[in-house]
């Protein structure tokens, strides 16, 4: 049975997302990113994942400055998520705010859905 306090906390976190979380969410929501259905502030066991998907099983964490002081906690979360079958990738707030294209490229590689290379307009036989 779920802990209703955790569910209520997740709802509050959805309403009060940080700017980097919101920016990333707008890129991932509504299956915009490679057709993957992401959920935000998803309760997984005793933790709340910033963003997660079931197919593929991935958790995306957006870490702010305070995460430098809670490395043990973050490591425990990662271990727990991995025990549940998820792969975890973390991005710093600064990267999300200043290099969204790079973040999305890394995420695409991580989930195994890297973009195809851009072909030459002249075709493969161009000299």
Description:
With 127 residues, the protein is an alpha+beta fold. It has a single domain (4-110), classed as VSR Endonuclease (Endonuclease, Chain A, 3-Layer(aba) Sandwich), CATH 3.40.960. 41% of the residues lie in helices and 22% in strands. The chain has five helices and four strands, in the order ααβββαβαα. It has helices at residues 4-15, 19-28, 71-83, 93-98, 100-110, and strands at 38-44, 47-54, 57-63, 87-92. It has a four-stranded mixed sheet with strand order 1-2-3-4, with helices on both faces. The longest helix has 13 residues, at 71-83. The N and C termini lie far apart (64 Å). The model has no long low-confidence stretch (mean pLDDT 86).
Write out key terms for the chains shown.
Endonuclease, Chain A, hydrolase, nuclease, alpha+beta, globular, four-stranded mixed beta sheet, Restrct_endonuc-II-like, 127 residues
Q: Please name the CATH architecture.
A: 3-Layer(aba) Sandwich
Structural class comes to: alpha+beta
- Residue fraction in strands: 15-25%
Termini Cα gap: 64 Å
Strand tally is: 4
Mean pLDDT across residues: 86
Give the helices and strands, then pairings.
Elements: H1 4-15, H2 19-28, E1 38-44, E2 47-54, E3 57-63, H3 71-83, E4 87-92, H4 93-98, H5 100-110
Parallel strand pairs: 3-4
Antiparallel strand pairs: 1-2, 2-3
């Amino acid at each position: 049975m779920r802990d209703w306090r955790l569910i209520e906390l997740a709802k509050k976190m959805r309403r009060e997302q940080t700017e980097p979380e919101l920016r990333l969410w707008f890129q991932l929501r509504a299956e915009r990113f490679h057709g993957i259905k992401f959920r935000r502030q998803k309760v997984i066991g005793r933790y709340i994942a910033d963003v997660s998907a079931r197919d593929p099983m991935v958790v995306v964490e957006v870490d702010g400055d305070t995460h430098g002081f809670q490395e043990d906690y973050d490591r425990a979360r990662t271990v727990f998520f991995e025990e549940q079958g998820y792969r975890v990738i973390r991005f710093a707030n600064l990267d999300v705010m200043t290099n969204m294209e790079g973040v999305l490229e890394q995420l695409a590689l991580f989930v195994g859905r890297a973009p195809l290379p851009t072909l030459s307009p002249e075709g493969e036989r161009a000299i």
